[in-house]
């Protein structure tokens, strides 16, 4: 999908954030060069690259690059620290990990270097968006010097593409591997339910380290639209990003909506760009969905999904407010459901 968009609509904006924008041609070129640099490190088809980054352009470039040479991207949630990441990295057998630069509150490179000394598989620590200390590699420098022609292996649709860990809300986190078939077919089959076009701008309140966020990335690629980034959620940031970035497709969790409503973040804001807003991630009270609907010109619906199957249920956006606010709608195409009890 990325290669096709780079060839057919090279100048269309693929990724836009608070400080920069990137066309499809630029995103494809940078991802190819990063893929070549990773291959030069010795990574190849089936190798796992872990990543702990917020919703920033580098996350997307790493995702694209790793899948270009047939690698597997394994996501690590941003709040996780060494004790939580160690068993996940060990289980995945990750050979490399990508993290952000050190901040006043979190020394991610130092944390990852410590894990490299404890996890037998982990060989490389790549740092995005800032200084790469001794013992690590700069992601920006790898992109600058990488040679996309080194990428000779082309994955097939049955190859594993991502390894996500469930959120652990109901039990211990479980590892879920998706190949291209199981991951992308769900997006492709659900696209018609949204009437997606290349003019759509997609915004995910959900972190890209969750399957929900990955789903939104894939939707934008499928449509050939633009991914609008919000690196860190606050009520003000969400409202300002919607008003300034003009997304047409909004994906949020109930907690995002509740925080914004409580803070009055939507009051006085121009949110008219949103054509469709999808609430997912946890059970959403009827009144919460209805309140978001009152702030938008578009329609609000609900989606139920899980790491194992992505989008499983979706309310029809042409359905009644009662259906969209108070139910999860119907099963998505190719998904079967059975009610086991009340």
Describe the structure.
- With 342 residues, the protein is of the alpha/beta class.
- 37% of the residues lie in helices and 20% in strands.
- The protein has twelve helices and 16 strands.
- The chain has a nine-stranded mixed β-sheet with strand order 2-1-11-10-12-13-14-15-16, with helices on both faces. Strands 7-6-5-3-4-8-9 form a seven-stranded mixed β-sheet, sandwiched between helices.
- Helix 10 links the parallel strand 12 and strand 13.
- It is globular and about 55 Å long.
- The N and C termini lie far apart (42 Å).
- The model has no long low-confidence stretch (mean pLDDT 96).
Low-confidence stretches: none
Compute the CA-based radius of gyration. Answer: 20 Å
Query: How many runs of DSSP E, i.e. beta strands?
Result: 16
Amount of beta strand: 15-25%
Shape: globular
- The helix fraction, in percent, is 25-40%
Taking the alpha carbons of the first and last residues, their distance comes to: 42 Å
Oligomer: single chain
Largest sheet: 9 strands, mixed
Strand order of the largest sheet: 2-1-11-10-12-13-14-15-16
Number of helices: 12
**In terms of structural class, how would the helical and strand content be classed?**
alpha/beta
What is the residue-averaged pLDDT?
Answer: 96
Order of helices and strands: HEEHEHEHEHEEHEEHEHEHEHEHEEHE
